[in-house]
Structure formats: structure tokens, C-alpha cells
Design goal:
Blueprint: E1 2-6, H1 10-22, E2 27-31, E3 43-46, E4 49-52, E5 58-59, H2 63-71, E6 78-79, E7 86-90, E8 93-96, H3 118-126, H4 143-151, H5 153-168, H6 177-180, H7 182-193, H8 200-210, E9 224-227, H9 232-242, E10 245-247, E11 254-258, E12 261-265, E13 274-277, H10 281-287, H11 293-299, E14 304-314, E15 325-328, E16 339-341, H12 343-346, H13 348-351, E17 356-362, H14 378-393, E18 402-415, H15 421-432, E19 438-440, H16 443-446, H17 450-465
Parallel strand pairs: 1-2, 1-13, 2-10, 7-15, 13-19
Antiparallel strand pairs: 3-4, 5-9, 6-9, 7-8, 11-12, 14-17, 14-18, 15-16, 16-17
Helix pairs in contact: 1-9, 1-17, 4-5, 7-8, 10-11, 11-15
Bound molecules: flavin-adenine dinucleotide (FAD).
Flavin-adenine dinucleotide (FAD) binds at residues 6-12, 31-34, 39-41, 54-58, 251-252, 278-280, 283, 307, 309, 410, 413-414, 442-443, 448-450, 453.
Length: 466
């Protein structure tokens, strides 16, 4: 059987590996437009050690992902974070991130009282007695609109957008509740189905109450994990284990099908029996134009958010706060960065290198116009990162000795999971059910996080294997 996979990011490489496991004799060809594999996983060889300039962590609570890495022989290389707290910068001050709640949305005013005005505190307190939310069971709503209506703008702009922005490169106003915080949507569904009053505070409390309480004395498992040698360990292992023939610099511009199979424009002359598209949504929409026009049209509505990262290695960590990082409130004036990760504080294996490693990130959905921060000159991005870092934390990066810098832009880095997204994905899946031998996967399909991308790619491979 001959398989073609378009895209050698995490989804494409995982699919290739899954196919190889099931079909050792398969011919597997992967076509990748770039000159390297990994896509948004990208480990850069700093002289101080391998350093991730795309994704840097994964949700270690996803046991399926941890088991997958262990099966790949990478279990020993999974490292845990230090557990240092993160901060939020708002009102020109760094403050602790709120505890409890869900994605910064509290069930009562206490967790956010240090971040918002007295008026907002009173509003959160009174939310339970306001008119109920007009919630449609199974539907979705915009996160920003919902939280603004119930708790006011400060909770959205100072807390929720900062937290969601760290995952999606979007503010809360560009994201859907079910699409990004499904447990909250399910709690709203449950309140409505049980005939109870649907309020935000009641739904958040329900989520909080449903969280399993750790057994007394039980060891707390870290929420996140990473690879000692960076994500390159994962994508290189997947590529090698898949035994696939990976074609780099192979930009696929179209796909046709005839009785012999799928034909890849920009690929080889072979006809393939099975095809997996593991490309970002807009590319997948183009490649599906002839094969599945309805799916192609639906996918065109998925927009992408761009961002830029500046990785900085300093000779000294003197004065860098003992925190994992700081998120910047979306309404904070005079700050260009969106977040800082104090990587060498967050990850003990990076602290072992000495000095300090810091990642500055820029850009939220819509910030990629001609004069946007994401398109700024590299020197400007580095200057802004250093200036903001000093203004926010007092750490003077120039004085600390900046020994290595890497600037990475991610144009279209993440799909926008807005309130229409899940409907779009359902339409695409329905339309593709009629096209045998073809599957689609990737960050737009079942979630952007590494475990979600792996699970979706494995499922796509299983379906294509039949
Ligand atoms: C800055 C950033 C930080 C992140 N941090 C985290 C994190 O810490 N933890 C986490 O869990 N997730 C994180 N993510 C999300 C996660 O990295 C991604 O969701 C995941 O890596 C996407 O994998 P993918 O294979 O779906 O897509 P991609 O990585 O985009 O791979 C798609 C591949 O297709 C190729 N391609 C595109 N068009 C064509 C074409 N026409 N022909 C051939 N090839 C083509 C591309 O070059 C690319 O290599 C982050 C994402 C970004 C952008």
C-alpha cells in the first residue's frame, strides 16, 4: 500500500509513525514545504544547549501522550517544571496569577480581587443573582462577550485574555467557550439541562467542584512536561521510527485523484492509495478544492494567529524573579510583549546550563498587518523584549550579558478556535466521510496542544488504515 502524507509537522510525522506500526511493508512518502521537519516544533541548537523556539511544553496530565512518548523510548527524557508560580502584569505592577477558577474566570471575586476594581468585585459577587444566561445546550458562545457581560471588561482584559492568549495567541474576544474551555461549556449545559439557573459563577463553581481532589499525602504530578533535549527529540524520533521517505522543500500545490489513486502536484510521479493532509487549515482548504469542495469551503473560514518569539540567553540570572514567567494584561499600555517565559526558572534542566534563558513572545490574532509587531525588524523585537523585561521585572538584560539571541516568527502559527470553529470541523468531517482513502488532521482539528494533535493524527492514521 502506498501512503502520501502532506506536512512533516507533529501531525504528519505522528500519522506516518502510526501507519508504519500497523503496516511494516507500507510505502510512506511525506511531503514537506519547508527545509526542515517539525513544523511548529522547532529546537534551535543554542551553544548553551538545545532550545525550543516553538512549542516548549506539553500537558503531562494527558496520560495518552506520556504513554506515547514512553513507547517511543523517550520516557527517560521527559522533564518536569520547577513549579515556580507565574505572574500577571497589570496596572504597571506584577501580581500573582489568580488561583482556582477556570482559565482565569473565577466563581467568586476573591481570586481576582487583587487585579480588578472594587466595582468589578461587586459585580462578580452579584452575578449569581443577575438574570440567567440565555445558554443553548450544545452550542457555543464567544468567551470575551460572555465574561464581559457577566463580570465586566477588567476580568477579560486583565486575566482571561492573558491566560488564553498564552495558549491560542488570541484574546478572549476571538475564542469560543466550548472550543477552548469545553469543561465550562459542559457545566453551562448541565445547569440548563437540570433546569437550574444558568450563571457564569455557578458554572465555574461546578467545574471547580468536579476536579478530583488529590489523596492526602499523594505525590502531586506535574501538570506540564518537556523533553530534556527539546522537541527535536520527539520529531526526529518520529521521523526515524516511521521509516518514511521524507521529501523536504516539497511544496504541494494541488492534489488530484483518478482510478490509479491520488496524485500530488509538487510530489513524485507515483499514484498513492491513501492520503493524509496534515497541513494548517487554509492550506488544507486549498488542497481539498478538487477532492472535497464542501470541506474545502468550510475550512476556508478558519483563520490563523501569528506570533513572534525572541529567545535570549544571559550570562547572569541575578535579579530575574523566581517565577516561571509573566503574562501581560491585554489592556496594558506601553508594553509590546505579550508574555515572558523565564525558561531557566521554569525548567530545572535549563537552569543547569547556568545564566538565564528567557523567551519573550509578541503578537495576538490580527496583529500581523504590515506595521505589526510580528513583522518588526529583529533588532527592534530584541530591544522591545529587553526594555519590557526591565520595566516589568527590573532585570537589566543588557547588563546581565546577552550571549545568544534567536528570533523566530510564526506567521499563521495557531488556528483561531472561535465560537464557530467546532461547527466548521464537524462540517469538514461530515463532508470527508464520503471520500474514501483521504483523511485530514492537524492543530485545527481537535485542539492545538501537543497531546491533542498526536491523538487526532493517530486516529486519522487508524481511519486511513481501515
Ligand atoms: C509559538 C507556539 C508555541 C506553542 N507552544 C505550545 C506548547 O508549549 N505546548 C503545546 O502543547 N502546544 C504548543 N503549541 C501548539 C503546537 O506546537 C502545534 O499545535 C503543533 O505543533 C501543530 O502541529 P501540526 O502538525 O498540526 O502543524 P504544523 O506544525 O504547522 O505542521 C504542518 C506542516 O505542513 C507543512 N506544509 C504547509 N503547507 C504545505 C504544503 N503546501 N506542502 C507541503 N507541506 C506543507 C508546514 O511547513 C509544516 O511543517 C505552540 C504553537 C506555537 C506556534
Amino acid at each position: 500500500m502506498k501512503y502520501a502524507i502532506i506536512g512533516a509537522g507533529l501531525a504528519g510525522l505522528t500519522s506516518a509513525h502510526e501507519i508504519r506500526r500497523a503496516d511494516p511493508e507500507a510505502t510512506i512518502h511525506v511531503f514537506e514545504a519547508d527545509d526542515r521537519i517539525g513544523g511548529k516544533l522547532f529546537t534551535v541548537p543554542f551553544s548553551s544547549g538545545p532550545t525550543d523556539m516553538g512549542a516548549e511544553a506539553f500537558l503531562a496530565r494527558r496520560q495518552d501522550a506520556v504513554d506515547f512518548f514512553t513507547d517511543l523510548g523517550l520516557g527517560e527524557d521527559i522533564v518536569a517544571p520547577s513549579g515556580m508560580n507565574s505572574l500577571v502584569y497589570t496596572g504597571a505592577q506584577v501580581r500573582p496569577l489568580p488561583r482556582g477558577g477556570v482559565m482565569g474566570i473565577p466563581s467568586s471575586p476573591e481570586p481576582v480581587a487583587h487585579l480588578v476594581s472594587g466595582e468589578t468585585v461587586a459585580r462578580i459577587d452579584a452575578e449569581g443573582s443577575a438574570e440567567p444566561i440565555d445558554w443553548r445546550v450544545g452550542g457555543d458562545a464567544n468567551v470575551g462577550t460572555l465574561v464581559r457581560e457577566r463580570y465586566g471588561d477588567e476580568v477579560v482584559d486583565r486575566v482571561v485574555s492573558a491566560l488564553l492568549g498564552g495558549v491560542y495567541s488570541c484574546t478572549a474576544d476571538d475564542l469560543g467557550v466550548r472550543a477552548t474551555i469545553p469543561q465550562l461549556a459542559e457545566a453551562l449545559d448541565a445547569l440548563a439541562e437540570e433546569g437550574r439557573k444558568v450563571t457564569l459563577s455557578a458554572a465555574v463553581r461546578r467545574v471547580e467542584d468536579s476536579r478530583p481532589q488529590p489523596e492526602p499525602g499523594a505525590e502531586r504530578r506535574p501538570v506540564f512536561g518537556a523533553f530534556r533535549g527539546g522537541y527535536a527529540q520527539l520529531y526526529e524520533t518520529l521521523a526515524e521510527r516511521s521509516g518514511a521517505d521524507i521529501h523536504l522543500d516539497a511544496f504541494v500545490s494541488g492534489i488530484t485523484r483518478n482510478l490509479k489513486g491520488f496524485h500530488i502536484q509538487g510530489g513524485t510521479d507515483l499514484a498513492y492509495d491513501r492520503l493524509i493532509l496534515a497541513t494548517p487549515a487554509p492550506t488544507t482548504a486549498v488542497l481539498l478544492r478538487e477532492l472535497a469542495p464542501e470541506a474545502s469551503t468550510a475550512l476556508r473560514s478558519v483563520k490563523l494567529a501569528s506570533s513572534a518569539l525572541v529567545g535570549m540567553k544571559f550570562d547572569s540570572a541575578e535579579g530575574l524573579p523566581d517565577n516561571s514567567g509573566v503574562l501581560i494584561a491585554a489592556d496594558e499600555p506601553d508594553v509590546r510583549t505579550k508574555a515572558f517565559t523565564f525558561s531557566s526558572k521554569k525548567w530545572p534542566h535549563l537552569a543547569e546550563r547556568g545564566g538565564a534563558l528567557v523567551r519573550a513572545s509578541f503578537g495576538r490574532f490580527g496583529d500581523d498587518g504590515l506595521n505589526s509587531v510580528v513583522r518588526a525588524e529583529e533588532d527592534d523585537l530584541v530591544d522591545w523584549a529587553l526594555d519590557d523585561l526591565q520595566a516589568i521585572t527590573g532585570f537589566d538584560g543588557r547588563a546581565a550579558g546577552l550571549s545568544e539571541i534567536y528570533v523566530q516568527r510564526w506567521f499563521g502559527g495557531l488556528p483561531r478556535y472561535d465560537e464557530t470553529h467546532l461547527g466548521t470541523v464537524a462540517t469538514v468531517r461530515r463532508a470527508l466521510a464520503d471520500v474514501p482513502g483521504l483523511e485530514v488532521t492537524g492543530a485545527w482539528a481537535s485542539g492545538v496542544g501537543v497531546p491533542a494533535v498526536i491523538a487526532d493524527a493517530r486516529a486519522a492514521a487508524q481511519r486511513v488504515l481501515g
